Amino acid sequence: MDNQSANTNPLFEKIESFTKTSLTLFKLSSVEKSADVVSSLITRITIIVIASLFILFANIGLAFWIGKSLGEYFLGFFIVSGFYIILLAFVFIFRYKMIKKPISDMMIQKMIHEAEIDNIIQNN
């Protein structure tokens, strides 16, 4: 009976070591994927903010230019804002296809690498 107990003790130690190693690997993998997603989002947000500032100042200039051409500056601002209300309606109608789905797909792609997707498909 002691021989059997002596044989199972190293087995339990190996199982415990394997479990700890697997847990550590899972934690490191999660940290890597989270960092990848966050860094991608921060990069995109920075680009969007800079592009938004450019667009803002370009639109102010365009509104003044149209207003000067029409003789009244406020008309230029009304025309530019009319363009944006039409653009807002367009984006609102197609918000799922244009915004939600691409962002969801990007996050999923960042969280699950291509190799992992292939493994999931092959295992099913």
Automatic annotation (TrEMBL):
Keywords per UniProt: Membrane, Transmembrane, Transmembrane helix
TM region positions: 41-67, 73-94
UniProt-recorded name of the protein: Holin-X, holin superfamily III
Organism per entry: Flavobacterium hankyongi
